[in-house]
Design brief:
The chain is an alpha+beta fold and 479 residues long. It folds into 2 domains: 4-61 and 68-184, Beta-Lactamase (2-Layer Sandwich); 244-478, Hypothetical protein af1432 (Orthogonal Bundle), CATH 1.10.3210.10. It has helices spanning 4-57, 70-82, 135-138, 179-257, 266-282, 290-299, 312-315, 323-330, 332-347, 351-362, 383-397, 409-418, 426-434, 436-444, 461-471, 473-478; strands spanning 91-96, 101-105, 121-123, 132-134, 147-154, 157-166, 171-178. Strands 2-1-7-6-5-3-4 form a 7-stranded antiparallel sheet. It starts with a helix and ends with a helix.
Length: 479
């Protein structure tokens, strides 16, 4: 007896649900009937339209040089109409819109004697649209509409009709098929189906009331199992999507780098250098996390994506660039940044694309404001780009290029240190120095194409910087 109130609530809720379900089925059945009726009407009117086109195309097929003879054309029309049997006991009638006189019709059509073209009202196919129009005005000679598809009530019966204006004969061609004939089989099917559905719902409702408590308990257990399984699948799917995204992004970046076969493993090294620096910086800032480090490491691969827009004659030039050439190659930051910005607009708010856009746009800005493309100064340049700037220049210095040989770690280290506070953010340079052994190891593991010539060893960084100034290597490396 203690469980009785609970069972009453279950029965009450189930009864309400059953009643709502029956109501929904009734509404759905009515909607389905209406939609199907309109669909059949459209199909029937399409058939009517096909017959009308067959009739109109059969007219005026004789010698175009002969004078138009309305009476002869009307006779031709009458013969054509007489040769056509309209499906479902339908009819074809040609009417004079001025006199409302029937010019010709199918002889076998059951046209009521009370048929009066002047009193026929045409309605749209959709029953939700109640607009009506007179038959004789539907496709008048001055009307921009030369045909009409819809419904018409003739002698108490509803027909699906199509009306076409024949300009040469100044006549209206009307084709109709009984709507009841088209819908009778469908109506019986819907009624029978509805009765079966109602019976099935009642039986299921009675069974569900007696078993609902047990079903709910089992459902809860299954739901917990399914939830755990779905979570595992979602995690697996997210991992697959992440790997796919990384592969696609890296492939896109490699496409740009492939134009310069001297860069080889440049992207892999840049990603390693940037990740090392980003982790060091993130440890000292609460607002930065592991996701930011991962995004920056991956985004660094796209820093030079804009080079796809730079001609090979400039990109691969084995020597100093002219002012005009340098202006062109500097545009690769704008090209890459705008490309990634366009992708971001498609994706919406996305932290990775925002990072990639910053890197592409600003990795050639300088701490003292003399960089490009915008001449940003100090922290006006995003932290992401300031980190990539150090990694990019270090790799350029320690790698062989068409316009230079590679420098060793100590020489490259001296250039990085000399650029602290002018070209580079001092904080990032300090991070570089804390991890220079890791940089050296990555740099020494790279594979260089071609032989490495013997170079002079420099006594100190001043002598090195003097030589770099004479050879214009530092500027070349920064591009």
């Amino acid at each position: 007896m203690k469980n009785k109130p609970g069972w009453l609530i279950v029965i009450l809720i189930s009864s309400v649900q059953l009643a709502l379900l029956l109501l929904a089925v009734m509404m759905l059945s009515s909607w389905f009937h209406t939609q199907t009726e309109e669909t059949i009407g459209q199909r029937t009117c399409k058939d009517n339209r096909t017959l009308a086109l067959q009739i109109t195309r059969s007219l005026n097929l004789g010698d175009a040089s002969k004078k138009f003879n309305a009476e002869a054309e009307l006779q031709t029309l009458g013969k054509k109409i007489a040769s056509i049997t309209v499906p479902n006991g339908g009819f074809i009638i040609a009417i004079n819109p001025k006199s409302a006189k029937i010019l010709c019709s199918t002889p076998h059509a059951a046209i009521p004697s009370s048929f009066d073209p002047a009193n026929i009202k045409l309605k749209m196919l959709s029953k939700s649209l109640e607009a009506k129009v007179d038959l004789l005005r539907s496709v008048a000679p001055n009307n921009r509409h030369r045909h009409f598809d819809g419904r018409a009530e003739i002698a108490g019966k509803e027909y699906f009709v199509s009306v076409e204006f024949l300009p040469k004969l100044q006549a209206i061609l009307m084709l109709g098929q009984p709507a009841k004939h088209s819908m009778s089989g469908l109506t019986d099917l819907i009624v029978n189906t509805q009765q079966l559905v109602f019976t099935a719902i009642l039986l299921l409702g009675m069974i569900s009331i007696s078993l609902i408590t047990s079903i709910l308990n089992r459902f809860q257990q299954k739901n917990e199992t399914m939830t755990e399984g779905l979570e595992n699948k979602v995690t697996q799917r997210e991992s697959e999507l992440l790997r796919t995204k990384n592969a696609v992004i890296f492939g896109l970046a490699k496409l740009a780098e492939s134009r310069d076969n001297d860069t080889g493993e440049h992207l892999e090294r840049i990603r390693s250098y940037v990740t090392i620096l980003a982790k060091d910086v993130a440890e000292k800032r609460d607002e930065l996390n592991d996701e930011w480090v991962r995004n920056l490491g991956l985004a660094s691969s796209l820093h030079d994506i804009g080079k796809v827009g730079v001609p090979d004659s400039i990109l691969l030039k084995p020597g100093p660039l002219s002012m005009e050439e340098r202006a062109i190659i500097e545009l690769h930051t704008v090209i890459g940044g705008e490309c990634l910005e366009a992708i971001q607009m498609r994706l919406g708010n996305n932290s990775f694309m925002d990072t990639a856009k910053q890197v592409a746009f600003f990795h050639h800005e300088r701490w003292d404001g003399s960089g490009y493309p915008h001449g940003l100064k100090e922290e006006e340049t995003p932290l992401t780009a300031r980190i990539v700037a150090v990694a990019d220049v270090y790799d350029a210095l320690t790698s062989k290029r068409p316009y230079k040989t590679s420098f060793g770690h100590l020489e490259s280290r001296a250039i990085i240190i000399s650029g602290s506070g002018s070209q580079f953010d001092p904080e990032i340079v300090d991070a570089f120095l804390r991890h220079e052994d890791e940089f050296r190891e990555i740099s020494q593991n790279k594979s260089e194409t071609g032989s490495q010539p013997n170079r002079k060893r420099f006594a100190n960084s001043e002598e090195l910087m003097k030589t770099l100034g004479e050879q214009n290597i530092e500027n070349q490396a920064s591009v």
